[in-house]
């Protein structure tokens, strides 16, 4: 139950490519239940890029309820995907095209800024697609498993997934903004703030506190990363685990981030 005395939290979400997709679904689903918590942006790599797009689309056209419905409908399609004998890339594209319309996501009025992370298959350079660069191809590329799925051509280059989110720049703090990293394991680190000095009392660039929500069953779910469409009961079990981890994070006293060591812009929630 939400405490009316708790100050609203504005968060920026980062979805790592190693987090099982249905776990990510649960985290997003729980955050949508929280009226004191709003999402300003989502950056995603791997299969989570598909969900991030569905999440942003649902919010843009139907608010919180729309996002929850869009995610649930998307996962119904995922659970049925194994019935179709077509290649993975075509399957991803088909599910995405049935689930979203890009224009509301690109619109300036979209409540969530979406960024998807893909890797140049020729140079290994990480590229972030956002705003007008967002496309079905970009999102499918982010979800494509290197060497198991063909790279996707975009503007003369070819891309696939496995983007390293640890190289993302620190999150700029907007009000009471926090960055929440959803990953498969706790040993995930974001780029360290370049302006933090050992004697500094505050981050010069205003980096947001960074928290980690991770799946304690990561190793058990790892093989499913390549083929996330499984039995509906298994999917909802993993979703519920994600919901519980998000619940635990929401219940934590985030004011403790103000007590972190002066030379560290990061905190980790377990």
Write the layout of secondary structure elements.
Layout: E1 9-15, H1 21-32, E2 37-45, H2 48-80, H3 88-99, H4 102-106, E3 113-120, E4 126-130, H5 136-143, E5 152-154, E6 157-160, E7 177-183, E8 210-214, H6 218-221, H7 232-251
Parallel strand pairs: 1-2, 1-7, 2-3, 7-8
Antiparallel strand pairs: 3-4, 3-6, 5-6
Helix pairs in contact: 1-2, 1-7, 2-3, 2-5, 3-5
Q: Would you mind describing this structure in some detail?
A:
With 270 residues, the chain is of the alpha/beta class. It is built from seven helices and eight strands. It has helices at residues 21-32, 48-80, 88-99, 102-106, 136-143, 218-221, 232-251, and strands at 9-15, 37-45, 113-120, 126-130, 152-154, 157-160, 177-183, 210-214. Strands 1, 2, 3, 4, 5, 6, 7 and 8 form an eight-stranded mixed beta sheet that branches. Strand 3 (113-120) and strand 4 (126-130) form a beta hairpin. It is globular and about 45 Å long. The protein starts with 8 loop residues before the first strand and ends in a 19-residue tail after the last helix. 41% of the residues are buried. Residues 1-6, 188-192, 194-206, 220-225 and 254-270 have low confidence and may be disordered.
Which characteristics define this entry?
single chain, 270 residues, 7 helices
Rounded to the nearest angstrom, the distance between the terminal CA atoms is 21 Å
The main sheet comes to: 8 strands, mixed
Q: Helices and strands: which structural class?
A: alpha/beta
Q: How confident overall, as mean pLDDT?
A: 77
Indicate the proportion of strand residues.
15-25%
DSSP strand count: 8
What is the helix tally?
7
- The shape is globular
The whole-angstrom Rg is 18 Å
Query: What pattern of helices and strands is seen along the backbone?
Result: EHEHHHEEHEEEEHH
> What is the helical fraction, as a range of percent?
25-40%
Weakly predicted, low-confidence segments: 1-6, 188-192, 194-206, 220-225, 254-270
